[in-house]
Each structure stands twice: as structure tokens, then as C-alpha cells.
Specification:
The protein contains 18 helices and 14 strands. By secondary structure, it is α+β, with helices and mostly antiparallel strands. The chain has 4 domains: 97 residues, no CATH class; 139 residues, no CATH class; 143 residues, no CATH class; 59 residues, no CATH class. The strands form 2 sheets. It has a 7-stranded antiparallel β-sheet with strand order 1-14-13-12-2-11-10, with helices on one face. Strands 7-6-5-4-8-3-9 form a 7-stranded antiparallel β-sheet. A hairpin with a 2-residue loop joins strand 13 and strand 14. Helix 3 crosses helix 4 and helix 6 crosses helix 7. It is extended. The N and C termini lie far apart (75 Å).
């Protein structure tokens, strides 16, 4: 290297540099102090990984020099660190642990990028601190490739809306408020996924005796009360029997080789299946006859309050029949969605009186806004003339709209071209009037509400409606599916499918065990409530639920005409005491709906209180 001329006389080997540093440290001695004082901030480490500046075990002598490769944002003199120090100095009551966690979190973000293999102790401390502060946040993972379960879709407690015991209270403004109940969701669920840090092993491998006891309790509508805290859920026979009881439901018709729910948009599931009634008119008539008997039996049970509600699922729409008093209704009510103009016209022809609640709500909101606007204009001094002009212009616009609806063409006469313009015929005028109604077809706004004695007329209409059954396609000749929580004529007892899986989900610094319980099938409102009541003591008041809604039924949460006296809620619960549901579920279903046309998507329980997101 000397001959090449590229050797530097000042070059030192790494071993020489280390030897010189050790010699310098011994010569300086332990009592040496630096000329410039070192500022110590709680929770802030030096410029390289190591103990805290203010740690008791740190040696007083020998201060590490500044790392020349460190970003200025990492240094104590950076704007972020100065702001942190200034805030800490003025906040005498600030907890030292919070300040340490905040400063360490800022440094940890940089150390991850620059020093991936160093600072293990600091990361471990951060992870422990974060787990103590955010122990209630869990991150789920999908159970399989077909589950389509995303982390951001299930657990977002920061954006979740709390459910309150009273509509007036607000959990965001009053954190001490305990949300003991979540609102009733009248939509049908196809899949429910429960996740919890506690194991779900108690829900698997039921004994034959426990399964038989659960079936018997469901058929007899007998419910056993569970203790508030279950120490050993796997050894609790009442819990396992109650879980088997919650999974039962009644269905008609029952064809083991055909999935009869959902029916809307399910043609792919019916393709390639054996359907002997497709070309046999006699067999189709026999199926419809049995189906009519089952539907009539369900309505009779509903009228006598022996059945709380039931669903009719056809290939085009879904009908929800509810007993008097549920969801705040005065009498028996029925919601039908989605509808078409042809179906609504057929219902009118049969004398069925119905309403479009979403359209009426929109109209009322517009009227309220216009009345408030007119009042504000009238109260303003010096603008009486302007308000009169606005009102007159509004009335003129209404008259013009009425003229247009009546087919008037007075504006052509004013222009003098009434003889040169060809007027539209009566058919065009009729189509223009019906355009607004046609736009509602197959939309959530097309939901129809039928109340009182008109529900019996609707029942006869459904039995005799030829368009209720598909005339062609894979569902041709197949009667609609009837779902109910209680037994009825021609019904078959079915069980929801449940499975438990233990997976590992990735957290900040590693992996964490997450236990999950998946329930699939037509999940009705009472089933969801009963399962949450079971999981509350079994999972020690901490679990989360991901809800997968059958979207055409999400609009069934629209509010109906409510009872004038809130104290009638107790009377409703008393009247429905023999409907086959436990009293807590009846109390939840009797409260007026508050979800509108949306459905629950996420449900969380932390410390025995609920939060939810729709």
C-alpha cells in the first residue's frame, strides 16, 4: 500500500481505536465532570440505545458523545423534544409514567428504522406499557381464506358508537355511564364471529346429555339463570346446555340438499341441485299447499302472542311479521322490502293500506326545514316584502308543478307556439307521473309498512300471489322460506353451525393468542341477544362480535308508529311472556328501533359494558 501511494499515515485499526478509548477513560478517572451540564428528562434515553439518562444505575462519569449519523429529530434540541420538555416543566401534575411512554414512543419510531437489531430492552418496556394502557384493544385475523374478515372491519373501538340505557345519555361525554344493552337489530345475519382473549373451549364437543337437555329446553321454552361469574366454563353444564339451546330455530320447507337461506341472489347455490318439482305441476301445488298451512299457523301464533315474530324469505323480497308491542308498534306490523311498483300496485288493488316510512320521514324533515325557514324570515325585521316574494314564488312553483302533473301547457300559449309544438299523449304524461315511483324499485326507500288488520289482508295476498314463487330459473316452483324462533305446523327444527378456532394475531412487537367462535346460518335477533347473554359471564365480560348482515334485510330496522305511553313496555313484556323467548330478549325487542335503515356491523363488550358500530 506504501508503493501504491494510497496509504494514509493517520489510519488506525479498529483495535487501536478501542485501546485508545479505554486508556483515555482510565486516565480521566471516575470523578471527571463535563464542562457542559447534561439535561436529564424523564423517559428520554441518550442518542444511542442504552439506559435512561436519569436511571439510578447509570454511571455519573463518562457521557456518550453525540452520534453524528443521528437525525436531528432524535436529538434533545429538536423542536419536538423542546416542546416536550417545556410542556413537562409547566405541567407539575403530569404523571411521570405517561411522559416516559410518550417520549419513548417518539424515539422508538426512529430506532426501528435506524437500529433494527438494537434497543431490545426499550422495545420491551414500550410493549409492556402499551399493553397496560390499551389492554382492551384486540386485533382479529381471518380464520380462513374464504372468511373475508379484515382487521379494520371488526375492532375499531375508537370509532364505535356507544349504546346507552337511555337515548338521552351519551357515553362519549360521560365515560362512567354503563351501557348494559345494545339496540335490537331486526335484520337477518348470515354469519357471526365472536373473538375474545378467553378460550371458547366450553362451546365444543358437547356431550349427548347436554345436547339433549338443550333441545328439550328450547322446545319447552325453559331458561336457566347463569351465575354472574363462571370460574370454569368448560365444567359448567348449564352454560353448555344453554349454548345448544340458543342455536335452535324452526324452518319450512326443509330440504337437506338445498340451502334455503338466503333466497335473494342465491341462484348460484341452487345450480346443479336436484329439483324434481321444477317440471311437475302437481308436486308444486302440493308444496304450496303445505306452505300455506304453515304460514297460516304462524300468523295465528303471532296474533295470540305465542310467537314473537317470523320471516318470509322469497326470491324477490323479505317480509317481517311482528307481534303487537314489539319495536314500539301498537298492533301487529309487517315490513316488506325491497318492493317494486308492480307489487305496490297489486297490494293497493287488494285493498291493503300501507305506508313508505322512509319517504314519509324525508317529507316530514323537508316540511320542518321549510317551516323553520319561513319562521326565521318572518321574524327578521325589514324583510317582510322579501319573505312575501319568497312565499309567492314558492306557491307559483307548486302551481307550476301541479300544472305539469295535470298535463297543462299554458306556457306554450304565452309564447304563441301552442299550435306548432306537438303535445305529449296521455301515455307519456302517465309515465312521467310514475317516474318517481319507479325510481324506488329495489332500493331501501321502497320498504313498505303494513299495520293492524291490514296484515291479515297481506297474509291472504301472499298466499294467493302467483309472483311469490319464481316461474323460471333455479328457484322455479320452490315456496318461500319461513323462519321462526318457535315451533309451528310443518316446521323442522334446525341447528346453527358453530365452530371454535384459536389463532395468533400480530400485535406491535409479536403475536398474541385470540380465541374465536363462529356461528353461521339464519341468525335472528333473539339468537344474537341470547348468545351475548351467555358469553357475558363465560368470557368474563370481554369479547367482540363481527356481524355479517343479509343486506336486503338491513332496512327492516326502520321505526314504526310508536306507543304513546312508554309505561306500556312492562305490559308488552307481560303479554309476550309465553312467546318462547326469555324475558331479557323480549325487553330488548320491545324497545322502538333506533338503527334506522342500517344494521349492526360490530359489537364490543369491555368490562361488562357494550359499544357498537352500525
Amino acid at each position: 500500500m506504501l508503493e501504491l501511494g494510497c496509504y494514509s499515515p493517520s489510519f488506525k485499526k479498529p483495535s487501536d481505536v478501542l485501546r485508545m478509548r479505554r486508556k483515555r477513560a482510565r486516565s480521566e478517572g471516575p470523578g471527571r465532570r463535563t464542562s457542559s451540564p447534561v439535561v436529564s428528562v424523564d423517559g428520554v434515553r441518550p442518542f444511542s440505545p442504552g439506559p435512561l439518562l436519569s436511571a439510578p444505575g447509570r454511571a455519573s462519569g463518562g457521557v456518550k458523545r453525540r452520534n453524528p449519523f443521528v437525525n436531528i429529530e432524535n436529538t434533545y434540541n429538536s423542536p419536538k423534544k423542546r416542546a416536550l420538555s417545556h410542556t413537562d416543566g409547566h405541567r407539575g401534575a403530569l404523571d411521570g409514567k405517561k411522559a416516559a411512554a410518550a417520549a419513548a414512543a417518539v424515539l422508538d419510531a426512529k430506532f426501528r428504522e435506524e437500529l433494527p437489531n438494537a434497543g431490545a430492552s426499550m422495545r420491551e418496556e414500550l410493549f409492556n406499557t402499551d399493553q397496560q394502557k390499551h389492554h382492551h384493544i384486540q386485533t382479529p385475523v381471518s380464520l380462513s381464506e374464504d372468511d373475508d374478515l379484515f382487521e379494520e372491519d371488526l375492532f375499531e373501538p375508537e370509532r364505535s358508537t356507544p349504546v346507552l340505557k337511555s337515548p338521552v345519555a351519551d357515553c362519549d361525554t360521560a365515560p362512567a355511564e354503563v351501557c348494559l344493552e345494545f339496540p335490537a337489530d331486526w335484520s337477518l345475519k348470515t354469519r357471526v364471529l365472536f373473538t375474545s382473549p378467553q378460550s371458547f373451549s366450553w362451546a365444543e364437543h358437547l356431550k349427548a346429555q347436554e345436547e339433549a337437555q338443550g333441545l328439550s329446553s328450547h322446545c319447552r321454552a325453559e331458561y336457566t339463570s347463569l351465575p354472574a361469574n363462571i370460574q370454569d366454563p368448560r365444567g359448567c353444564a348449564e352454560l353448555r346446555c344453554g349454548f345448544q339451546q340458543c342455536l335452535q330455530y324452526w324452518q319450512h320447507p326443509s330440504l337437506p340438499w338445498l340451502p334455503l337461506f338466503p333466497r335473494i341472489g342465491a341462484e348460484r347455490k341452487f345450480s346443479g341441485k336436484c329439483m324434481p318439482w321444477a317440471q311437475d305441476a302437481t308436486l308444486q301445488q302440493s308444496l304450496m299447499s303445505d306452505w300455506s298451512v304453515s304460514l297460516t299457523s304462524l300468523y295465528s301464533l303471532l296474533k295470540t302472542r305465542l310467537c314473537p315474530y317470523f320471516y318470509l324469505c322469497s326470491y324477490q323480497f323479505t317480509v317481517l311479521f311482528r307481534a303487537a308491542g314489539l319495536s314500539g308498534a301498537k298492533g301487529i306490523s309487517a315490513l316488506l322490502s325491497p318492493t317494486t311498483r308492480g307489487l305496490r300496485e297489486a297490494m293497493k288493488a287488494e285493498g291493503i293500506e300501507f305506508s313508505l316510512p322512509l319517504l314519509e320521514e324525508r317529507r316530514k324533515s323537508k316540511e320542518l326545514a321549510s317551516s323553520q325557514l319561513s319562521e326565521s324570515v318572518q321574524q327578521t325585521e325589514g324583510e317582510e316584502a322579501a319573505s312575501g316574494a319568497v312565499l309567492s314564488e314558492h306557491s307559483e312553483n307548486e302551481e307550476d308543478d301541479e300544472d305539469d302533473d295535470d298535463g297543462g301547457f299554458s306556457w306554450l300559449k304565452e309564447m304563441g307556439v301552442q299550435d306548432k309544438i306537438k303535445k305529449p299523449d296521455a301515455i307519456s304524461i302517465k309515465l312521467r307521473k310514475e317516474h318517481r315511483e319507479v325510481r324506488l324499485d329495489h332500493r331501501p326507500e321502497s320498504v313498505v309498512l303494513v299495520e293492524g288488520s291490514n296484515t291479515f289482508t297481506l297474509l291472504n295476498f301472499l298466499i294467493n300471489c302467483k309472483s311469490l314463487v319464481a316461474g323460471a330459473g333455479f328457484q322455479a316452483g320452490l315456496p318461500p322460506t319461513l323462519l321462526a324462533p318457535t315451533a309451528f305446523r310443518g316446521a323442522t327444527l334446525h341447528t346453527l353451525k358453530a365452530r371454535t378456532v384459536n389463532v395468533k394475531t400480530r400485535v406491535r412487537m409479536g403475536y398474541q393468542d385470540v380465541c374465536s367462535l363462529e356461528v353461521t346460518g339464519p341468525i335472528m335477533p333473539h339468537t344474537l341477544h341470547a348468545l351475548t347473554q351467555l358469553l357475558k359471564p363465560a368470557q368474563k365480560g370481554e369479547f367482540s362480535v363481527g356481524l355479517y348482515t343479509h343486506e336486503p334485510t338491513a332496512v327492516l330496522n326502520v321505526p314504526v308508529s310508536q306507543t304513546s305511553e312508554p309505561q306500556q313496555l312492562e305490559a308488552v313484556v307481560q303479554d309476550l311472556s309465553r312467546c318462547g323467548l326469555q324475558q331479557s330478549s323480549v325487553q330488548q325487542l320491545a324497545v322502538p328501533s333506533m338503527l334506522g335503515k342500517s344494521a349492526l356491523r360490530q359489537l364490543h363488550m369491555r368490562d361488562y359494558s357494550y359499544s357498537w358500530k352500525s
